[in-house]
Amino acid sequence: MSKFKMSNGSEGMLRGQAPDAFQQVDPSMPKRSSYDTDFERMPVKPQKTHADSTGFTSQVADIATSGIMEQAITDRLNQTMAQGIEDGYNARMEEDAMRPKEVTDAEIDAKEDSGKCDDDDLEALRARRRQQMKDAHEKRLKYQGLGHGSYDEIAEEEFLKTVTASERCVVHFYHKMFEKCKVMDMHLGKCARKFFGTRFVKLDAEKAPFFVEKLKIKTLPCAVVFNDGVAVGRQVGFDGLGGEEFETVQLAWRIKEWKGIEEDFGPEDDIAWN
Length: 274
What we know:
The chain is built from eight helices and five strands; from the N terminus they run H-H-H-H-E-H-E-H-E-H-E-E-H. It is an alpha/beta fold and 274 residues long.
């Protein structure tokens, strides 16, 4: 037997509200009003536990619910970030494992001069070299498509996509009124044009409060180096660069030490900057 029973329309909170269909079956049931009562038109107010209550409990409950929702959104964003980083890392590990060892023209010439390599082996090496050159060209086109080679400003909404799309990325968190940030911009612009294997971008710290907090950025300029979406190092101010008159190669070398640059060079190299 059901633990619920239907109102008969003559008692309880639903009296006078019996459905017309039921009234047709049982004429003794009162006819339902076609208009809302004054009580039904009253707005719903926060529940009170007693006559002197201010409704504070209900208001606090609403605040708590808002806090829970905000935390849920933050947790979801963190989960998405972590998943994106993991997916990007796993994909690149698989790609690296399948990539054959690079062959240079010098190695092919040396084997040919030695006379210890037959024609079939030499042709196989040449074919591999041609494929590697083709792959390098496609890689460069991919880098171009991702914005490598230029130093651009991004919005906070573009941050995750930017740092996970490229294997190496440097993000300069800056303030438009700080002179040191302008100096950092100048050097990073040179690096962007020289080191094509790295994505260099800038992000206005005032317009990116979420990631400024998550990355615990306190001092500007701050250039954060990412490998596969993971922050692996940061250049804070001019620390370790020997003062405000530092050379671009000094900054580039610090970025390379964090594996933020794939091209080979040394800290004392005389690099021709574009």
